[in-house]
Design brief:
Distance between the termini: 26 Å
Number of domains: 1
Shape: globular
Order of helices and strands: HHEEE
Strand order of the largest sheet: 1-2-3
Strand content: 25-35%
Bound molecules: zinc ion
Radius of gyration: 11 Å
Length: 65
Amino acid sequence: MQPGDLDQEELLMTLGDVLTEVASGHLDGHRCPVCAGGTLLCGDADGKIVVACRACRLHFEGWLA
Ligand SMILES: [Zn+2]
């Protein structure tokens, strides 16, 4: 799977568990669910979640509802 194969809604679903963890402060050690090969770089600033994967170039930014 490549990040470009997914629209924003599919990406949200794919990253769902990771986003929940990041939102609760667990930023480290998440495996990328898109390529299954990279470790995600996650950040949380002013409630905005940023998730990136260097292996597949996934880059997601968004707010959790
Ligand atoms: Zn990846």
